[in-house]
Specification:
Chain A: Belongs to the GcvH family. Chain A: This is Glycine cleavage system H protein. Chain A: The glycine cleavage system is composed of four proteins: P, T, L and H. Chain A: The glycine cleavage system catalyzes the degradation of glycine. The H protein shuttles the methylamine group of glycine from the P protein to the T protein. The complex is a heterodimer of chains A (125) and B (385). Chain A is built from four helices and nine strands; from the N terminus they run βββαβββββααβα. Chain A is of the alpha+beta class. Chain A has a single domain, classed as RNA polymerase II/Efflux pump adaptor protein, barrel-sandwich hybrid domain (OB fold (Dihydrolipoamide Acetyltransferase, E2P), Beta Barrel), CATH 2.40.50. The termini of chain A are close together. Chain B is an alpha+beta fold and 385 residues long. Chain B folds into three domains: 143 residues, Probable tRNA modification gtpase trme, domain 1 (Gyrase A, domain 2, 2-Layer Sandwich), CATH 3.30.1360.120; 125 residues, Aminomethyltransferase beta-barrel domains (Alpha-Beta Plaits, 2-Layer Sandwich); 83 residues, Elongation Factor Tu (Ef-tu), domain 3 (Beta Barrel). Chain B is 21% helix and 32% strand. Chain B is built from nine helices and 21 strands. A six-stranded mixed β-sheet of chain B has the order 12-13-14-11-5-15, sandwiched between helices. In chain B, strand 17 and strand 18 form a beta hairpin. The N terminus of chain B is likely disordered. The chains are: A alpha+beta (125), B alpha+beta (385). Chains A and B meet through helix 1, strand 4, strand 6 and strand 7 of A and strand 1 and helix 1 of B. Strand 7 of chain A pairs parallel with strand 1 of chain B.
């Protein structure tokens, strides 16, 4: 599986888009989605909620497990993906696209995220 | 929070070094299966979506590799009596060609394993144990058969086990065998030839659907898998992993050793006292303790095994507490999102006072939040016959 070049990645298997007008999009990687199996429930941060890089801000339930969702960046949530709340399977079918999770007004530029190549090596793909 | 982090739950590429591989290992890898360590075996967890695999078994057919299961063969003039003594069931009463669900208990009545016993001949039985307990069962049966004219054989390496489960499974199998499948009842088994491979064909399973389990020589496993896959193509047969096997058995209300069944519980505690046959001839291991457990269960029922159905979407997991009025009244033993019901379900042991279907005010503590659950009778799902 290929990880899009334009995204940056956390070691907790989240991705972060390029920041546009101060806002970036967050999701989980295809590697993570594949490892979790069918996602059946997502709990996402609320609009207006402050999230902190590396800290839990929600959860994903799959058939076999429940996993904390970590924000790869600090900031304030501006939007969450209602489509994913209604149809969590989008996380499996389109983790980098329609399965995005939430958008953040970035308060602090993250410094420790991985490039696509680095993440690919990290995930052992 | 007792939750798993995304980071921690994502398996990296190296499987545990000690895992055993089945005769179908190369097939699973070629199919791109996600593998998992299960009771010391490297087994397919799923090939694609576990929900799709689950639904295939409910509506068409699924193909499983269950070669991790542990086969033990008992032969000899007193093979039946030896098993009557070793197990809680009346195994010697089985007709040749029939199978029975039973258990093996410790002297104190605790469940060592749940089993299926097939009578293959007048003097030949095959005991199928869970992979995680196979050595325990082998050791116990061997020791308990000591005073009988019977031989106990470890046949774990003698068989690969393939299962075809789902409503289309008879049609698939019929196209590959001359065996009398219409005459093969549920919980029966007969020797035959499937796709040119010698097999014990059993009409058993762990999915709540009609289906077959095929015990074959490991050297024949790939050939049989390929033939079933080819014949199954016209019947929407899909390869299925252990993940959907777990949700299928949960919907069907079938217990899983290590979850609903443990050494700390007797069959009566698990609501399965019917497998204990006190009226069989001869003594059997655990009789005294089990008789006491039967009385106890009748007089002052301990916690009972019930079904729980979620009103919300958060999934109960094994070990989560069941609560009512802020008090802990039980514990979840298995839980999963149910593909058939479209909502989370669980099996749980709860205090008898809260065990009646429809009991109000029952919730599961899901990581600190008390999510309302409905108490229901098991199973959650029963196929139309």
């Amino acid at each position: 599986m290929s990880n899009p070049e334009q995204l940056r990645y956390s070691k907790e298997h989240e991705w972060l888009s390029a920041v546009e007008d101060g806002v970036a999009t967050v999701g989980i990687t295809q590697h993570a989605a594949h490892a979790l199996g069918d996602v059946v429930f997502v709990q996402l941060p609320e609009v207006g909620q402050d999230v902190t890089a590396g800290e839990s801000c929600g959860e994903l339930e799959s058939t076999k497990s429940v996993s904390d969702l970590y924000s790869p960046v600090s900031g304030t949530v501006t939007e969450f993906n209602q489509d994913v709340v209604d149809d969590p399977a989008l996380v499996n079918t389109a983790p980098f696209e329609g399965g995005w999770l939430f958008k953040v007004r970035v308060s602090e530029e993250p410094s420790d995220l991985l490039t696509a190549d680095e993440y690919t090596a990290f995930a052992g793909e | 929070m007792p939750s798993v982090t995304l980071g921690a739950s994502v398996p990296m590429s190296t499987p545990p070094a000690a895992s055993r591989r089945t005769a179908l290992d190369a097939v699973h890898r070629a199919l791109g299966a996600t593998m998992t360590d299960f009771a010391g075996w490297d087994m397919p967890l799923r090939y694609g979506s576990e929900r799709d695999e689950h639904n295939a078994v409910r509506t068409t057919a699924g193909l499983f590799d269950l070669s991790h299961m542990g086969e033990i063969t008992v032969t000899g003039p007193q093979a039946g009596q030896a098993l009557d003594h070793a197990l809680v069931g009346h195994v010697s009463a089985l007709a040749v060609g029939r199978a029975r669900y039973t258990m093996i208990c410790a002297e104190d009545g605790g469940i060592l394993d749940d089993l299926i016993v097939y009578r293959l001949g007048d003097e030949e039985f095959m005991v199928v144990a869970n992979a995680s307990n196979a050595q325990t069962v082998l050791d116990a049966v061997t020791a308990r058969a000591g005073g009988f004219d019977a031989a106990v054989r470890d046949d774990r390496d003698a068989y690969a086990l393939l299962a075809v489960q789902g409503p289309n499974s008879p049609a698939i199998l019929k196209s590959l065998t001359d065996a009398d499948l219409d005459g093969l009842k549920y919980y029966a088994g007969l020797p035959g030839t499937v796709a040119g491979v010698s097999a014990l064909i059993a009409r058993t399973g762990y999915t709540g659907e009609d289906g077959f389990e095929l015990f074959v020589a490991p050297a024949d496993a790939e050939k049989l898998w390929a033939a079933l896959t080819e014949a199954g193509a016209a019947h929407d047969l899909v390869p299925c992993g252990l993940s959907c096997r777990d949700t299928l058995r949960l919907e069907a209300g079938m217990p899983l050793y290590g979850h609903e069944l443990t050494t700390a519980l007797t069959p009566f505690d698990a609501g399965l006292g019917r497998v204990v046959k006190f009226d069989k001839p001869g003594d059997f291991v655990g009789r005294e303790a089990l008789a006491a457990a039967a009385e106890r269960a009748a007089a002052t029922p301990p916690r009972k095994l019930v079904g729980l159905v979620a009103e919300g979407r958060r999934v109960p997991r094994a070990g989560y507490q069941v609560v009512a009025d802020g008090t802990v009244i039980g514990e979840v033993t298995s839980g999963a999102p149910s593909p058939t019901l479209g909502k989370p379900i669980a099996m749980a042991y709860v205090d008898a006072a809260h065990a009646e279907p429809g009991t109000e005010g029952v919730a599961v503590d899901i990581r600190g939040a008390h999510e309302p659950y409905e108490v229901v009778a098991l199973p959650f799902y029963k196929r139309a016959r």
